[in-house]
Amino acid sequence: MTIRENLINKKKIVIKIGSSSITHCETGEIDYGRLEKFIRELINLKNMGKEVVLVSSGAIAVGTKVMNLTKRPSLIEEKQAVAAIGQANLMMCYQKIFGEYNQKVAQILITKDLMDHPVRRQNAQNTINALLKMGVIPIVNENDTVATEEIVYGDNDTLSAIVGSLITADLLILLSDIDGLYSEDPRKNNKAMHIPEVEEITEEIEKMAGGVGSCVGTGGMATKICAAQIATDHGVDMIIANAGMHHVIGKIFEGKPIGTLFIAH
Questions:
Q1: Binding residues
Q2: Binding-site residue ranges for substrate
Q3: Which residues contact 86 (CB under 8 A, 6 or more apart)?
Q4: Buried b (16+ CB within 10 A) or exposed e, 61-80
Q5: Alpha-carbon distance 140 to 137, whole Å?
Q6: pLDDT band at 237, cuts 50/70/90?
Q7: Over the stretch 89-105, which tens digit does the pLDDT of each residue have?
Q8: Residue range(s) defining the domain that contains residue 9
Q9: pLDDT for 207-218, tens place per residue?
């Protein structure tokens, strides 16, 4: 059995969805069609006996639209404010669609410095694991009203790797608007080569990472490589894949060569 084929045996899965993958880039509105298809795939994983944790971006994008702002706020405090508004609306959407399939969800807001505080770390770990045992899908996001780093830099890429390491996940899947890691930016060089697997994150791999790519997200390839480093160092395999691909999660668990697989140490 190949490494890809063995993914079907992974039990505890963390899946991160980016802002650009759940909203329409042109309008900023929630893409309900794509969101519902994505949720169906998560529920199908659950029905296969997997434990699923969702790390979802999108609070700022949704809050910006709810407040009828013409563009994403530039001031940190304004971003935090619209994130608070958007988070409530985002969870309402998740609760409604998951509820149509009789799937219970829970909201968890954490900060990246959680790992530096043993008691808080243990509490978060216990809560997430308890929810999984109860059959609930935890939906995790950065607590944007008290933390700003992911707002500015990460679009929850690093946060999802921390969640994966926190609960000793078997696999982390980062879903965004890119097909994986390339030797160069494929939008600038059509001869750029797709990298299907990475066994070790070397200096050469780090150099392949570019800047911010999407219109509503903040996480470029550099933050995804950083997330891969955290995940693989903690024994978690990680895949970067395109959320726009039809049945992308199903194809990953069918062993198809989707995206870029970073192999855990």
A1: 16, 57, 144, 156, 176-177, 218-224
A2: 57, 144, 156
A3: 58, 59, 60, 61, 62, 63, 64, 65, 66
A4: bbbbbbeeeeebbeeeebbb
A5: 10
A6: very high
A7: 999 999 999 999 999 99
A8: 5-262
A9: 887 644 443 444
State the pairing for strand pair 237-242/51-56.
unpaired
Report the binding-site residues for ATP: 16, 176-177, 218-224
Q: Looking at this protein, which amino acid is placed at residue 211?
A: G
Give the domain CATH number at 245.
3.40.1160.10
- Global pTM? 0.91
* Inter-residue contact 221 to 195 (CB < 8 Å): no
Cα gap 147→256, rounded to integer Å = 37
Contact, 225 vs 233, CB < 8 A? no
Q: Do residues 218 and 234 lie in contact, with contact meaning Cβ atoms separated by under 8 Å?
A: no
